[in-house]
Inverse folding.
């Protein structure tokens, strides 16, 4: 058994670099995803970093350049703990690939998302001691993991706007679910940008650079961008389309997971819903007739504004095949779009169409 | 001619209380909507308040209760100017009423929205001098306009969450497009909550109360709430459904406006798009074949994060009837849903389905 533990709870899309999503069964009903089944999305090999010699540089448009050890970070700033869901921009891409193939991209199902309780310090507190200059507009993160799929090959990086960076909820985290952050999830310190696509939460953080413009790293300037359906991603170039950040309202069904034939009758339907940034989940609708009629699912108790919303309901299902549909509404009254066909895009990001699950009952 | 000026640019839904939307022609191509055609949504008669005797009370969970004259407000706090779009939660309701009637509600078209440059002080600055107590969660606004459609009849009020209230962009405004705020738009001082439904931007502001819970005013607790399609709004009671706040991505077509037969050939298609809170507009798609294919519209220069996004493109249209469709994507990659049928709700709020315009060409 490798560092990932229970491999039967993971769907492994790629062994090296390691890319694996959590099974529906392992996600269902748990506010926090156990470390050994938390999804992993990597563009390069997982670095092993000695926490004792690790240093974090804070530079760019700051009055005070900083170089911080892990001990400095832990001693100088107040500790913050929050529950946050991470979600890959490619989560549920398989639904787009059913419409039209997306060569070279992994067919992620609904498990490229997981939730943990993170502990660390607030990026805003660190930036306060660095004293951000007035010209600052973005905060870039750099890491040592070499991404061979970048053009040209380069280490991974991202950036977020200054407003988000100063909002308080962005963490530099060294712990996950009360345990020391594992190497696979970014030890000794990773960024956690609650409500944004996972790619902005840079693992194995080494450098924070305050700058006027967004990062020119491949994964900010070229990849993780929503392009129009007709665009050619290979020739689109830096800056084309929308750089993904805050996450649109999304949901999927985790129970039943379609793996077994269930007895007909009252059947528990359960899943997750999530909306990024300041939006929460207001309502989850479930339908047994493909959206002709809906009932409202029960929402579990929330674990704060940055955590997904678990939900459940019970439908009385007849023998034979049933199609279960679910859709979530966020607190801005945005609802998931009905059809994945309308959402197809060349890199296969942000499939937030209605969740559908075919189940067989006896 | 009344205080509204060019009445032919307004579509008047109700004379008393005054409810009127701006025509497509008057909105098209203007970043700022002229004062005399800025939409008006009122639940009671427009109060005439003497600015010299006006006082603003700030109370509730604050260490320092304040009573401020207009001169105090203007002298004690830094002046702030920003361009913000206001949009009624019922904007584009007519599209929902085509699906199923919504008795007692006005059939607003796409003109229950307008944009102005507002000047005033930041609510955050006022709250800083009031010193908000730790138990605070919401900031309530109260005004003197008596709403006879409330149950029981009461003056208008609303509230917003503390995080939004402290974010800096919420203004207590006394000027609009460089002119003194007109009585019809809330003189001497109104709230402007950028990115939220217009109902939260309370006109004729008299009292700001910091409190633990949202306002119990009818327009916060009962009206302006998104209910499931099957709910009975008359028996839903306080707290049912989603209290509308931040605005979901929306757009409509302003040119052509369907009022005249145009010559066939290259035809300008233009409109607005808007997404509330921290979201901007990333892309606007336009289709001449009901969504089978889309082209990307040109986006006008932005007037900041709280202003709508104007857009235009040119389509080569044949003689006869054409159906033009438009849809916007926000910076969280949320897109407008295709069908108004999926969005129908008992009070007719938040119709953000694709914009459609039938045009006739010769």
């Amino acid at each position: 058994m490798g560092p990932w533990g229970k491999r039967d709870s993971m769907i492994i899309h790629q062994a090296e670099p390691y890319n694996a999503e959590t099974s529906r069964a392992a996600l269902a009903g748990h506010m926090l995803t156990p470390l050994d089944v938390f999804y992993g999305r990597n563009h390069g090999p997982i670095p092993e970093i000695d926490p004792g010699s690790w240093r974090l540089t804070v530079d760019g448009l700051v009055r005070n350049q900083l170089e911080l050890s892990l001990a400095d970070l832990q001693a100088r700033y107040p500790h913050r703990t929050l529950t946050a869901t991470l979600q890959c921009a490619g989560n549920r891409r398989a639904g787009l690939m059913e419409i039209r193939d997306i060569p070279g991209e992994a067919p992620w199902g609904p498990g490229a998302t997981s939730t943990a309780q993170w502990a660390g310090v607030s990026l805003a507190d660190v930036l306060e001691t660095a004293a951000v200059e007035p010209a600052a507009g973005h905060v870039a993160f750099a890491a040592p993991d070499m991404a061979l799929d970048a053009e040209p090959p380069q280490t991974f990086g991202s950036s977020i706007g200054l407003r988000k960076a100063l909002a308080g909820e962005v963490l530099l985290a060294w712990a996950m679910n009360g345990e020391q952050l594992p190497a696979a999830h970014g030890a000794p310190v990773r960024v956690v940008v609650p409500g944004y696509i996972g790619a902005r939460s840079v693992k194995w953080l080494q450098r924070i650079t305050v700058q006027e413009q967004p990062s020119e790293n491949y994964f900010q300037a070229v990849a993780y961008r929503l392009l129009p359906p007709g665009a050619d991603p290979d020739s689109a170039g830096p800056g084309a389309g929308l750089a993904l950040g805050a996450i649109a309202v999304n949901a999927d069904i985790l129970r039943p997971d379609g793996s077994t034939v269930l007895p007909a009758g009252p059947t528990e339907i359960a899943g997750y819903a999530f909306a990024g940034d300041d939006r929460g989940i207001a309502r989850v609708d479930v339908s047994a007739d493909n959206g002709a009629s809906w009932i409202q699912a029960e929402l579990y108790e929330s674990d704060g504004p940055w955590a997904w919303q678990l939900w459940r309901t019970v439908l009385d299902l007849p023998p034979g095949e049933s199609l279960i549909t679910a859709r979530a509404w966020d607190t801005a009254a945005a609802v998931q779009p009905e059809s994945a066909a309308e959402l197809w895009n060349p890199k296969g990001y942000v499939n937030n169409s209605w969740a559908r699950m075919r189940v067989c009952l006896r």
About this structure: The first helix of chain B runs from residue 24 to 27.
